[in-house]
Amino acid sequence: MQILEKKINLSKQQRKKYFFVAIVLALFTTATFLAKGNMPTTDEALAIFYINHWIVIGLEKLYLSLNNSGVLAGMIFVGIGCYYYYSIPKLTLDKIVAVLSCIFSIFMVLGFSYHKYDSWDYVFGNHFQFAFALVQITGWGIFFYFTLHHLFRIVDVGCKQGVEESHIDLRKVMLVIFLCWLPYWIIFFPGSVCYDTFAELSAYTGNRKWTTHHPVVATFLLGKLMDIGLLFGSANVGAAICTGLQLIGMLFTVYMILKNILRLNIPYSMFYMIVCYFALCPVWGSYIQMMIKDTVNLVFVSLFGVIVLNLLADKEWLKKKTNCAFLIVILLGVCNFRNTGIYMLTIVGVCLVVYYIKRKFMLWKRLIGCFVLCFFVVSVFNSILLPVWGITPGSKGEMLSIPFQQTARYVKEYPEDIMEQERLAIDNLLQYDKLAEAYNPSLSDPVKGTMHSQSGEHMKEYFKAWGTMLLRHPDSYVQATMNGIYGYFYPDSISKSRGTGLKFYIQSKDVKGSSNTGEYDVHYINRNSVRAFVVFYANELWRQLPILGLCYNTGIYTWILMICIALLIKYRKYYAILGTLPSILTILFCLVSPVNGYVRYMLPAMALTPLMIAWTLYAIREPETVGYRKKVNKKKTKK
């Protein structure tokens, strides 16, 4: 497939002009790439050359802010300059690319500021920092514009050319993926068990109050599977059953994703890259061996994403009763393994129904029936059956991570600016004296742990105080929010919150505050030295690999999804944006979650990312709702 255009003949005057422009643009990007990420002070600047003039001090700070390697700077400048010089003649003004480039450049600079300093001081700390941040935003923006422009051009040319019909034996592909995942299950057999899982089991056995904090159905099924293991004389058997079912579920999920990707007719090279992503990235193997509801939620949400694409690509998909039954089962799974599932069901369901009615598709009534049935079942279960069984709602603070973090940061930064009435209102709901110490910018659990009242009146008083404090220092609230979500937009971020890496451990009952009551004695059967190597490989070594390490960074998946949506907008394939809703909602749920940049919460969006790429290319290439093509003839291109 010929992607590159023919060489453009330029006049001498044009070459001079483009050369000068390339040098100027390269200076901005080079300065961006060479930035140390420090914040030099005026005293440090004056120590170099003692002239107390703002221009001299600014130049000295600039010197201190850049890496001083002449060879490195020269190589970067020449490389970037050549890239820009040869790209400028093919460049055109694209508003969508420009907007996306600006957004990405702001994400990079602000994200770095919060990742390193837990504040926006790297950008707004002083006049120099603001000016240097603008230089970096400009440098990143230029680089992203050139790169995204090339990417969009490749997509445009590629989608106009034919693609080959896929002839790949998925059984062999899935066998390879299974063999790549199997070592994780064997080495950590029967499986790892984290705090949350033992907390569910404690609720199931009655050792702690059973609430809806953890999904009730997920808790019940987990407990029953562990009880089956005890019938065979060992909790290890129950754990092996759980992780074994997770392995089967993940294999089926990836099979369905790959099957639909092939039906979307992507190039072979891209398909095999996707296979390597699922087979080799340690994220998937690690969450197969971990007994946790998020792995099961990943299965259901990913399969729901596959179904949504089928509903969009084939208006007659619901004609088969088996497909209707499959949709209902998956929707019930989505709602019963994450408390946010009911919101996903409602939002996606409404959007799909409106689309079907607007397009006058015959099966819109059947679509409504499937979603309404599931919504009714879940609503009756939650509002009628659970109270009858004595299962109470979880804490009201569970969804209040953002306002609680804002309050805690305010208390830490402006304690003298809080009125007595506001302090009492906060203290009636949260332990005021512990907020400043408990505040962790990337983790809201410590602050939520100080909540000691569920009173509606106390909640009302708290939000009244919250509002008055917001008016005095909105910057503190904005910073608290951004500090808790930047990891989902900054692609060079690894979550700094303790315990948010890939989980390879069994919660000990001897640890203070452990949720393990000892009723289910799950223990590894393989040597610790082997497990330690895998933990190092998955949690440390793989993260450091160039390009491949990005698989751990939640922000990169948000960027890819944004690029897909931008392409769909550019080509006016607005209907296809509906196919990205499960991924969009997953990211939105992450933003109100208690942990910043947590891979565990992003798993469904991560699994659906390859499918979103294939879907975007398919939607650009094909007319609306034509159904999956059964036969594709490759168009011949002239060499």
Question: In words, what does this structure look like?
Answer:
The structure is a single chain. With 639 residues, the chain is mainly alpha-helical. The protein has 3 domains: 12-160, no CATH class; 170-393 and 504-621, no CATH class; 396-488, no CATH class. It contains 27 helices and 2 strands. The chain has a two-stranded parallel ribbon. The longest helix is centred in the N-terminal third of the chain and has 34 residues, at 127-160. It is globular, with a radius of gyration of 27 Å. The chain starts with 11 loop residues before the first helix and ends in an 18-residue tail after the last helix. 40% of the residues are buried. The model is unreliable at 1-5 and 629-639 (pLDDT under 50).
Itemize the secondary structure elements and their pairings:
Layout lengths: L11 H23 L7 H5 L7 H12 L4 H18 L7 H23 L3 H4 L2 H34 L9 H18 L4 E2 L1 H11 L10 H16 L3 H29 L4 H13 L1 H7 L1 E2 L1 H21 L7 H16 L4 H18 L5 H25 L12 H13 L6 H8 L4 H7 L6 H4 L7 H17 L1 H12 L42 H17 L9 H17 L10 H11 L7 H23 L18
Helix pairs in contact: 1-4, 1-7, 5-7, 5-25, 8-11, 8-12, 8-13, 9-10, 10-11, 11-12, 11-14, 11-27, 14-15, 14-27, 15-16, 15-17, 16-17, 18-20, 18-23, 19-22, 22-23, 25-27, 26-27
The number of strands is 2
Series of H and E elements: HHHHHHHHEHHHHHEHHHHHHHHHHHHHH
User: How confident is the prediction overall: mean pLDDT?
Assistant: 91
What is the percent of helical residues?
A: 55-70%
State the distance separating the first and last CA atoms. 9 Å
Q: Domain count, please report it.
A: 3
Question: Mind telling me the C-alpha Rg?
Answer: 27 Å
The residue ranges in which pLDDT falls below 50 over 5 or more consecutive positions are 1-5, 629-639
Structural class category: mainly alpha
- The share of residues in extended strands comes to under 5%
Strand order of the largest sheet: 1-2
Number of helices: 27
Largest sheet, in brief, is: 2 strands, parallel
Q: How would you sum up the global shape? A: globular
